[in-house]
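> Could you send the Trichome birefringence-like N-terminal domain-containing protein prediction when you get a chance?

Sure thing. Input:
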Amino acid sequence: MKNSTAFAMLLLLVMVLSGEGQNWNITSRKKEISKNSCDLYTGKWVYDSSYPLYDASSCPFFEKQFGCEKNGRPDKNYLKFRWKPSHCFFPRFDGADFLRRLRGKKILFVGDSISLNQWQSLACMLHTAVPQSKYTLARSGGLSEFTFPDYNTSLTLLRDGFLIKIVNKKAGRVLVLNSVSQGKSWKGFDILIFNTWHWWLHTGRKQPWDFIEDGNKLYKDMDRLVAYEKGLKTWTRWVDLHLSSSDIRVFFQGVSPDHMNALNWTAPNARTCIGVKRPLLGATNNGVVEEHPAERIVEKVIKKMEKPVELLRVTPLSQLRRDGHPGVYGIGRHRLPDCSHWCLPGVPDAWNHLLYASLYFSAS
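Output:
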Protein backbone atom coordinates (compact mmCIF):
# COMPACT_ATOMS: atom_id res chain seq x y z
CA MET A 1 0.00 0.00 0.00
CA LYS A 2 2.83 2.36 0.87
CA ASN A 3 4.51 1.65 -2.47
CA SER A 4 1.25 2.39 -4.33
CA THR A 5 0.83 5.70 -2.50
CA ALA A 6 4.43 6.68 -3.18
CA PHE A 7 4.06 5.80 -6.85
CA ALA A 8 0.87 7.87 -7.14
CA MET A 9 2.52 10.89 -5.54
CA LEU A 10 5.54 10.53 -7.84
CA LEU A 11 3.28 10.33 -10.89
CA LEU A 12 1.42 13.46 -9.75
CA LEU A 13 4.70 15.35 -9.37
CA VAL A 14 5.88 14.28 -12.83
CA MET A 15 2.58 15.46 -14.37
CA VAL A 16 2.86 18.88 -12.75
CA LEU A 17 6.47 19.36 -13.83
CA SER A 18 5.78 18.21 -17.37
CA GLY A 19 2.68 20.30 -17.83
CA GLU A 20 0.46 17.24 -18.37
CA GLY A 21 -2.82 16.73 -16.61
CA GLN A 22 -4.20 19.87 -18.23
CA ASN A 23 -7.77 19.01 -17.25
CA TRP A 24 -7.24 19.13 -13.50
CA ASN A 25 -9.56 21.30 -11.44
CA ILE A 26 -8.34 24.81 -12.27
CA THR A 27 -9.29 26.41 -8.96
CA SER A 28 -6.99 24.02 -7.09
CA ARG A 29 -4.01 25.47 -8.98
CA LYS A 30 -4.65 29.21 -8.73
CA LYS A 31 -1.66 29.81 -6.51
CA GLU A 32 0.68 28.10 -8.96
CA ILE A 33 0.01 30.67 -11.66
CA SER A 34 0.16 33.79 -9.58
CA LYS A 35 2.61 36.54 -10.47
CA ASN A 36 4.71 35.63 -7.46
CA SER A 37 5.17 31.96 -8.35
CA CYS A 38 4.97 31.69 -12.09
CA ASP A 39 6.18 33.46 -15.22
CA LEU A 40 3.71 32.44 -17.90
CA TYR A 41 5.83 33.96 -20.65
CA THR A 42 9.03 31.96 -20.11
CA GLY A 43 8.72 28.60 -21.78
CA LYS A 44 8.61 26.82 -25.11
CA TRP A 45 6.25 25.44 -27.75
CA VAL A 46 5.50 21.73 -27.45
CA TYR A 47 3.78 19.40 -29.88
CA ASP A 48 0.27 18.43 -28.70
CA SER A 49 -1.72 15.94 -30.76
CA SER A 50 -4.99 17.20 -29.19
CA TYR A 51 -4.55 20.61 -30.84
CA PRO A 52 -5.89 22.80 -32.38
CA LEU A 53 -8.49 24.10 -29.93
CA TYR A 54 -11.06 24.62 -32.69
CA ASP A 55 -11.74 23.99 -36.36
CA ALA A 56 -11.87 27.14 -38.48
CA SER A 57 -14.74 25.63 -40.47
CA SER A 58 -16.82 25.57 -37.27
CA CYS A 59 -16.66 29.38 -37.03
CA PRO A 60 -19.27 30.75 -39.46
CA PHE A 61 -17.92 34.29 -38.99
CA PHE A 62 -14.30 33.36 -39.77
CA GLU A 63 -12.06 35.85 -41.65
CA LYS A 64 -10.76 34.36 -44.89
CA GLN A 65 -7.38 36.07 -44.54
CA PHE A 66 -6.46 33.97 -41.48
CA GLY A 67 -7.72 30.60 -42.78
CA CYS A 68 -4.42 29.18 -44.00
CA GLU A 69 -5.66 25.59 -44.20
CA LYS A 70 -8.72 26.60 -46.21
CA ASN A 71 -6.51 28.79 -48.42
CA GLY A 72 -4.49 25.74 -49.42
CA ARG A 73 -1.68 25.37 -46.90
CA PRO A 74 -0.74 21.67 -47.17
CA ASP A 75 1.31 21.16 -43.99
CA LYS A 76 -0.57 20.78 -40.67
CA ASN A 77 2.11 20.72 -37.98
CA TYR A 78 1.75 24.46 -37.30
CA LEU A 79 -1.71 23.66 -35.86
CA LYS A 80 -0.34 21.25 -33.29
CA PHE A 81 1.83 23.37 -31.02
CA ARG A 82 0.84 24.43 -27.51
CA TRP A 83 2.59 27.07 -25.38
CA LYS A 84 4.09 25.54 -22.23
CA PRO A 85 5.56 27.72 -19.42
CA SER A 86 8.82 26.35 -18.05
CA HIS A 87 8.24 26.28 -14.32
CA CYS A 88 4.54 26.24 -13.55
CA PHE A 89 1.18 24.64 -14.15
CA PHE A 90 -0.79 26.13 -17.04
CA PRO A 91 -4.44 25.03 -17.19
CA ARG A 92 -5.90 23.98 -20.50
CA PHE A 93 -8.08 26.70 -22.02
CA ASP A 94 -11.70 26.23 -20.93
CA GLY A 95 -13.96 28.44 -23.03
CA ALA A 96 -17.13 27.57 -21.10
CA ASP A 97 -15.44 28.53 -17.83
CA PHE A 98 -14.12 31.72 -19.42
CA LEU A 99 -17.64 32.72 -20.48
CA ARG A 100 -19.07 31.99 -17.04
CA ARG A 101 -16.46 34.27 -15.51
CA LEU A 102 -17.14 36.90 -18.17
CA ARG A 103 -20.86 36.93 -17.50
CA GLY A 104 -22.13 40.50 -17.65
CA LYS A 105 -18.74 41.83 -18.82
CA LYS A 106 -17.78 43.84 -21.89
CA ILE A 107 -14.37 43.35 -23.50
CA LEU A 108 -12.81 45.82 -25.95
CA PHE A 109 -9.87 45.15 -28.26
CA VAL A 110 -8.36 48.38 -29.62
CA GLY A 111 -5.67 48.26 -32.26
CA ASP A 112 -4.71 47.34 -35.80
CA SER A 113 -5.24 44.14 -37.77
CA ILE A 114 -3.18 42.22 -35.22
CA SER A 115 -5.95 43.02 -32.73
CA LEU A 116 -8.39 41.69 -35.34
CA ASN A 117 -6.32 38.51 -35.41
CA GLN A 118 -6.62 38.10 -31.62
CA TRP A 119 -10.29 39.13 -31.46
CA GLN A 120 -11.16 36.63 -34.22
CA SER A 121 -9.25 33.92 -32.37
CA LEU A 122 -11.04 34.51 -29.06
CA ALA A 123 -14.47 34.62 -30.72
CA CYS A 124 -13.81 31.23 -32.34
CA MET A 125 -12.40 29.72 -29.13
CA LEU A 126 -15.49 30.76 -27.15
CA HIS A 127 -18.02 29.87 -29.84
CA THR A 128 -16.48 26.39 -30.15
CA ALA A 129 -16.77 25.91 -26.38
CA VAL A 130 -20.54 26.62 -26.41
CA PRO A 131 -21.64 25.85 -29.99
CA GLN A 132 -25.34 25.73 -29.08
CA SER A 133 -25.29 29.15 -27.44
CA LYS A 134 -26.75 31.99 -29.49
CA TYR A 135 -24.47 34.75 -30.73
CA THR A 136 -24.76 38.00 -32.66
CA LEU A 137 -22.19 39.71 -34.85
CA ALA A 138 -22.53 43.34 -35.93
CA ARG A 139 -20.01 45.29 -38.01
CA SER A 140 -19.98 48.99 -38.85
CA GLY A 141 -16.87 50.62 -40.26
CA GLY A 142 -13.95 49.90 -37.95
CA LEU A 143 -16.21 48.61 -35.17
CA SER A 144 -17.14 44.93 -34.77
CA GLU A 145 -19.14 43.48 -31.88
CA PHE A 146 -19.56 39.79 -31.11
CA THR A 147 -22.01 38.98 -28.30
CA PHE A 148 -23.19 35.96 -26.33
CA PRO A 149 -26.70 36.96 -25.14
CA ASP A 150 -26.95 33.93 -22.84
CA TYR A 151 -23.98 35.27 -20.89
CA ASN A 152 -24.64 39.00 -21.41
CA THR A 153 -21.06 39.16 -22.67
CA SER A 154 -19.60 41.07 -25.61
CA LEU A 155 -16.27 41.07 -27.44
CA THR A 156 -15.84 44.36 -29.30
CA LEU A 157 -13.08 45.26 -31.75
CA LEU A 158 -12.25 48.89 -32.56
CA ARG A 159 -9.77 49.25 -35.40
CA ASP A 160 -7.20 51.93 -34.54
CA GLY A 161 -3.66 51.63 -35.86
CA PHE A 162 -1.99 54.33 -33.75
CA LEU A 163 -4.19 55.03 -30.66
CA ILE A 164 -3.49 58.72 -31.36
CA LYS A 165 -5.10 61.14 -33.81
CA ILE A 166 -4.51 61.68 -37.48
CA VAL A 167 -6.15 64.95 -38.55
CA ASN A 168 -6.41 66.81 -41.83
CA LYS A 169 -4.80 70.26 -41.75
CA LYS A 170 -3.71 72.76 -44.36
CA ALA A 171 -0.28 71.16 -44.45
CA GLY A 172 -1.80 67.72 -45.07
CA ARG A 173 -2.52 64.65 -42.93
CA VAL A 174 -0.95 65.12 -39.51
CA LEU A 175 -0.16 62.47 -36.89
CA VAL A 176 -0.74 64.34 -33.60
CA LEU A 177 1.46 62.80 -30.90
CA ASN A 178 -0.19 64.55 -27.95
CA SER A 179 -3.84 63.57 -28.56
CA VAL A 180 -5.52 60.15 -28.37
CA SER A 181 -7.71 59.16 -31.26
CA GLN A 182 -11.00 57.72 -30.00
CA GLY A 183 -10.97 58.06 -26.22
CA LYS A 184 -14.75 58.43 -25.91
CA SER A 185 -15.17 55.04 -27.58
CA TRP A 186 -12.85 53.39 -25.03
CA LYS A 187 -15.12 54.13 -22.10
CA GLY A 188 -17.81 51.85 -20.69
CA PHE A 189 -15.88 48.56 -20.89
CA ASP A 190 -14.77 46.21 -18.12
CA ILE A 191 -11.69 44.77 -19.85
CA LEU A 192 -9.61 46.56 -22.49
CA ILE A 193 -6.74 45.14 -24.56
CA PHE A 194 -4.79 47.79 -26.48
CA ASN A 195 -2.29 47.27 -29.26
CA THR A 196 -0.25 49.47 -31.59
CA TRP A 197 3.05 49.12 -33.43
CA HIS A 198 2.99 47.92 -37.04
CA TRP A 199 1.58 51.11 -38.57
CA TRP A 200 4.36 53.17 -36.99
CA LEU A 201 6.84 51.64 -39.45
CA HIS A 202 4.89 52.26 -42.66
CA THR A 203 6.45 54.46 -45.30
CA GLY A 204 5.58 55.51 -48.84
CA ARG A 205 2.06 54.75 -50.01
CA LYS A 206 1.24 52.77 -46.87
CA GLN A 207 2.03 55.74 -44.60
CA PRO A 208 -1.31 57.34 -43.65
CA TRP A 209 0.15 60.72 -42.60
CA ASP A 210 2.26 63.44 -44.21
CA PHE A 211 3.61 65.17 -41.09
CA ILE A 212 4.11 64.48 -37.39
CA GLU A 213 3.02 67.08 -34.84
CA ASP A 214 4.87 67.09 -31.52
CA GLY A 215 3.63 69.92 -29.31
CA ASN A 216 3.74 73.08 -31.40
CA LYS A 217 6.22 71.73 -33.92
CA LEU A 218 5.55 70.01 -37.23
CA TYR A 219 8.02 67.47 -38.63
CA LYS A 220 8.21 65.79 -42.00
CA ASP A 221 9.40 62.68 -40.16
CA MET A 222 11.27 61.58 -37.05
CA ASP A 223 12.79 58.45 -35.57
CA ARG A 224 9.83 56.08 -35.47
CA LEU A 225 10.76 54.60 -32.08
CA VAL A 226 10.92 58.12 -30.63
CA ALA A 227 7.53 58.95 -32.11
CA TYR A 228 6.13 55.65 -30.84
CA GLU A 229 7.25 56.38 -27.29
CA LYS A 230 5.76 59.89 -27.38
CA GLY A 231 2.46 58.48 -28.68
CA LEU A 232 2.38 55.78 -26.02
CA LYS A 233 2.99 58.33 -23.28
CA THR A 234 -0.07 60.25 -24.52
CA TRP A 235 -2.07 57.02 -24.31
CA THR A 236 -0.81 56.30 -20.76
CA ARG A 237 -1.86 59.76 -19.56
CA TRP A 238 -5.36 59.23 -20.96
CA VAL A 239 -5.67 55.79 -19.35
CA ASP A 240 -4.47 57.08 -15.97
CA LEU A 241 -7.05 59.86 -16.11
CA HIS A 242 -10.08 58.03 -17.51
CA LEU A 243 -9.69 54.32 -16.68
CA SER A 244 -8.46 54.61 -13.11
CA SER A 245 -11.26 52.55 -11.53
CA SER A 246 -10.05 49.32 -9.95
CA ASP A 247 -13.03 47.57 -11.54
CA ILE A 248 -11.56 48.16 -15.01
CA ARG A 249 -8.81 45.80 -16.19
CA VAL A 250 -6.42 47.19 -18.81
CA PHE A 251 -3.96 45.14 -20.84
CA PHE A 252 -1.47 46.07 -23.52
CA GLN A 253 -0.82 43.41 -26.12
CA GLY A 254 2.92 43.19 -26.62
CA VAL A 255 4.50 43.71 -30.01
CA SER A 256 3.59 40.99 -32.49
CA PRO A 257 6.79 40.19 -34.43
CA ASP A 258 6.89 39.68 -38.16
CA HIS A 259 9.25 37.27 -39.92
CA MET A 260 9.91 39.09 -43.17
CA ASN A 261 13.69 38.93 -42.86
CA ALA A 262 15.27 35.60 -41.99
CA LEU A 263 18.51 37.32 -41.04
CA ASN A 264 16.72 38.35 -37.83
CA TRP A 265 15.88 34.83 -36.74
CA THR A 266 18.38 32.40 -38.32
CA ALA A 267 16.53 30.11 -40.69
CA PRO A 268 18.66 28.06 -43.09
CA ASN A 269 17.53 28.44 -46.72
CA ALA A 270 14.64 30.76 -45.76
CA ARG A 271 14.56 34.45 -46.66
CA THR A 272 11.09 35.08 -45.17
CA CYS A 273 8.45 33.04 -43.35
CA ILE A 274 7.45 31.36 -46.63
CA GLY A 275 7.94 27.62 -46.58
CA VAL A 276 8.91 27.42 -42.91
CA LYS A 277 7.05 24.50 -41.34
CA ARG A 278 8.33 24.26 -37.77
CA PRO A 279 8.78 26.69 -34.87
CA LEU A 280 12.09 27.34 -33.20
CA LEU A 281 11.94 24.79 -30.42
CA GLY A 282 14.26 26.48 -27.92
CA ALA A 283 12.93 28.24 -24.83
CA THR A 284 12.39 32.01 -24.72
CA ASN A 285 15.01 32.46 -22.01
CA ASN A 286 17.96 30.68 -23.63
CA GLY A 287 19.08 33.34 -26.06
CA VAL A 288 17.10 32.09 -29.06
CA VAL A 289 15.23 35.40 -29.32
CA GLU A 290 16.29 38.98 -28.64
CA GLU A 291 14.16 41.61 -26.94
CA HIS A 292 12.23 43.70 -29.45
CA PRO A 293 13.13 47.45 -29.27
CA ALA A 294 9.45 48.50 -29.37
CA GLU A 295 8.68 46.05 -26.57
CA ARG A 296 11.32 47.72 -24.40
CA ILE A 297 9.54 51.05 -24.91
CA VAL A 298 6.16 49.54 -24.00
CA GLU A 299 7.58 48.04 -20.82
CA LYS A 300 9.23 51.35 -19.86
CA VAL A 301 6.15 53.54 -20.26
CA ILE A 302 3.77 51.07 -18.59
CA LYS A 303 5.98 50.85 -15.50
CA LYS A 304 5.56 54.59 -14.92
CA MET A 305 1.75 54.54 -15.04
CA GLU A 306 -0.47 55.09 -12.02
CA LYS A 307 -3.05 52.67 -13.38
CA PRO A 308 -1.86 49.04 -13.14
CA VAL A 309 -1.68 47.89 -16.76
CA GLU A 310 -0.63 44.35 -17.51
CA LEU A 311 1.57 43.65 -20.49
CA LEU A 312 0.68 40.52 -22.43
CA ARG A 313 4.27 39.66 -23.28
CA VAL A 314 3.49 37.80 -26.48
CA THR A 315 6.61 39.01 -28.28
CA PRO A 316 9.26 36.43 -27.24
CA LEU A 317 7.00 33.39 -27.58
CA SER A 318 5.68 34.62 -30.94
CA GLN A 319 9.21 35.21 -32.23
CA LEU A 320 9.69 31.46 -32.00
CA ARG A 321 6.74 30.83 -34.35
CA ARG A 322 8.25 31.67 -37.73
CA ASP A 323 6.00 28.91 -39.11
CA GLY A 324 2.75 30.49 -37.91
CA HIS A 325 2.16 33.17 -40.57
CA PRO A 326 -0.09 32.86 -43.62
CA GLY A 327 2.80 33.47 -46.02
CA VAL A 328 1.39 32.70 -49.48
CA TYR A 329 -1.75 31.19 -47.93
CA GLY A 330 -3.34 34.49 -46.98
CA ILE A 331 -5.54 36.70 -49.12
CA GLY A 332 -2.54 38.16 -51.00
CA ARG A 333 -1.15 34.76 -52.03
CA HIS A 334 2.22 34.95 -53.81
CA ARG A 335 1.64 38.56 -54.89
CA LEU A 336 1.57 39.86 -51.29
CA PRO A 337 2.94 37.17 -48.96
CA ASP A 338 1.95 37.77 -45.34
CA CYS A 339 4.61 37.26 -42.67
CA SER A 340 2.98 39.66 -40.18
CA HIS A 341 -0.45 38.24 -39.38
CA TRP A 342 -1.04 34.74 -38.02
CA CYS A 343 -2.84 31.66 -39.25
CA LEU A 344 -5.90 30.63 -37.26
CA PRO A 345 -6.05 28.34 -35.45
CA GLY A 346 -2.58 29.29 -34.32
CA VAL A 347 -0.40 31.64 -32.30
CA PRO A 348 -3.12 34.17 -31.24
CA ASP A 349 -4.93 31.27 -29.54
CA ALA A 350 -1.98 31.12 -27.14
CA TRP A 351 -2.26 34.87 -26.56
CA ASN A 352 -5.88 34.40 -25.52
CA HIS A 353 -4.94 31.42 -23.38
CA LEU A 354 -2.51 33.73 -21.58
CA LEU A 355 -5.19 36.42 -21.32
CA TYR A 356 -7.50 33.83 -19.72
CA ALA A 357 -4.86 32.95 -17.14
CA SER A 358 -3.84 36.56 -16.53
CA LEU A 359 -7.40 37.76 -15.98
CA TYR A 360 -8.49 35.22 -13.45
CA PHE A 361 -5.48 33.54 -11.90
CA SER A 362 -2.77 36.17 -11.63
CA ALA A 363 -2.48 38.29 -8.53
CA SER A 364 -4.12 41.68 -9.08
